[in-house]
């Protein structure tokens, strides 16, 4: 996608054996890139959310393994890197998927071959992510086209958090259909949930939609239900950090409430999911998924651009009040209209998921 008319991916290799990323903690007010020289830089970038979004976390970890192999390619170094990277954030399964793909490819190889193979594989994982998302865009476009045909007016799409190109290598998952429909000249408008506490919607989704020229409006997290009652939302599309084999969807905290409101108002609720986001080991999302608990400070403080042009952090809760910060929630499969995947639209149920993905992988 383009930033001020220049094409960018969110992560790329440099000519001198390092990796560069867009530092997402600085957006929307500053566009800065950050150089990752070694595996620890990659692990820190994921942990500090300089890169975030399930697919991008996975790709960054794969490059982290490659960076590590360039310095030390021993069995011990491979194990230590993979073990550290996999723990950088707990909820997005793409992280474990990418690290285990690297580990199982590299482990049987002689040390001397590991670095070159690791760089090649990390680059394949990045390219695959772009292909999957383009494909999700094409399949999601058909759904948006259908709504536009029936309605014959602007299609209003609500999204939560940031599942756009910043959350992936390019295109995004939930926003790929939006970009495809916008580029196909379908009139559309996006309701952007601000997504407290870190405001990925207000800061990242709004920024990338602006860069592409897509009409959008930022709303507070509690507004979605009201807008659905007023018939101002035609569909919801969100991303996912982990989808279980029976179709339960783990995504940014607040997704579940949007799904409940959508069900109550007859609004279709779609989840964009590339296949690496499926966790073949889990069935019951509520019971089995580890939900990341982040610092209270993310709830108690906000950071923003002040009228004097300075970026400042300020406390918004009383000093004595504690805060709770669960970063994700689980939307049960029964509330999901469909999974928009690179293979097409798949029902969020055990049979359809098994047929499309699990039998396919064997
Ligand atoms: O905590 P974050 O910003 O990494 O959370 C991101 C999300 O919840 C996204 O919706 C999800 O990772 C899908 S990204 C294509």
Account of the protein in words:
With 362 residues, this protein is of the alpha/beta class. The chain has 2 domains: 2-128, Up-down Bundle (Four Helix Bundle (Hemerythrin (Met), subunit A)), CATH 1.20.120; 136-361, Rossmann fold. The protein is built from 12 helices and 18 strands. The longest helix is centred in the middle third of the chain and has 41 residues, at 111-151. Strand 17 (338-341) and strand 18 form a beta hairpin. It has helices at residues 39-47, 54-71, 75-86, 93-106, 111-151, 176-183, 200-212, 224-229, 255-265, 285-288, 297-300, 350-361; strands at 2-3, 6-7, 11-13, 19-22, 33-36, 155-159, 188-193, 216-219, 235-238, 242-244, 249-252, 269-272, 278-279, 301-305, 311-315, 328-331, 338-341, 344-346. The strands form 5 sheets. The chain has a 7-stranded mixed sheet with strand order 8-7-6-9-12-17-18, with helices on both faces. Strands 13-10-11-16 form a 4-stranded mixed sheet, with helices on one face. The protein starts with a strand and ends with a helix. Residues 52-55, 92, 161, 163, 167-168, 173, 200, 239-241, 251-252, 327 line the site of 5-S-methyl-1-O-phosphono-5-thio-D-ribulose.
């Amino acid at each position: 996608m383009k930033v001020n008319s220049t094409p960018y991916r969110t992560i790329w290799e440099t000519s001198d054996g390092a990796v560069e990323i867009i530092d997402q903690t600085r957006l929307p007010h500053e566009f800065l890139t950050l150089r990752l020289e070694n595996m620890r830089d990659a692990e820190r970038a994921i942990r500090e959310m300089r890169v975030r979004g399930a697919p991008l976390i996975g790709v960054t970890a794969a490059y982290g393994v490659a960076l590590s192999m360039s310095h030390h390619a021993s069995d011990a170094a491979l194990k230590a890197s993979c073990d550290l990277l996999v723990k950088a954030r707990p909820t997005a399964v793409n992280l474990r998927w990418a690290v285990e793909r690297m580990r199982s490819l590299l482990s049987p190889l002689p040390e001397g071959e590991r670095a070159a193979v690791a760089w090649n594989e990390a680059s394949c994982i990045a390219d695959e992510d772009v292909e999957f998302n383009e494909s999700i865009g094409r399949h999601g476009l058909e759904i948006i086209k259908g709504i536009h045909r029936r309605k014959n007016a602007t299609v209003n799409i609500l999204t939560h958090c940031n599942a756009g190109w910043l959350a992936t290598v390019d295109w995004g998952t939930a926003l790929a259909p939006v970009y495809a429909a916008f580029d196909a000249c379908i009139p559309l408008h996006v309701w952007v949930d601000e997504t407290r506490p870190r405001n990925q919607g207000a800061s990242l989704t709004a920024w990338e939609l602006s860069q592409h020229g897509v009409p959008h409006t930022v709303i507070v997290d509690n507004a979605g239900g009201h807008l659905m009652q007023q018939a101002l939302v035609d569909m919801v599309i969100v991303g996912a950090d982990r989808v279980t084999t029976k179709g339960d969807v783990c995504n940014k905290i607040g997704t579940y409430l949007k799904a409940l409101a959508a069900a109550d108002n007859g609004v279709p609720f779609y989840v964009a999911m590339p296949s690496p986001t499926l966790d073949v080991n889990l069935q019951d999302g509520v019971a089995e998924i580890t939900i990341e608990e982040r610092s209270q400070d993310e709830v108690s403080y906000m950071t923003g651009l002040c009228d004097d042009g300075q970026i400042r952090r300020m406390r918004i809760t009383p000093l004595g009040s504690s805060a709770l910060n669960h970063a994700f929630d689980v939307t049960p499969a029964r509330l999901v209209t469909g999974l928009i995947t690179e293979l097409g639209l798949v029902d969020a149920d055990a049979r359809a998921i098994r047929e499309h993905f699990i039998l396919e992988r064997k």
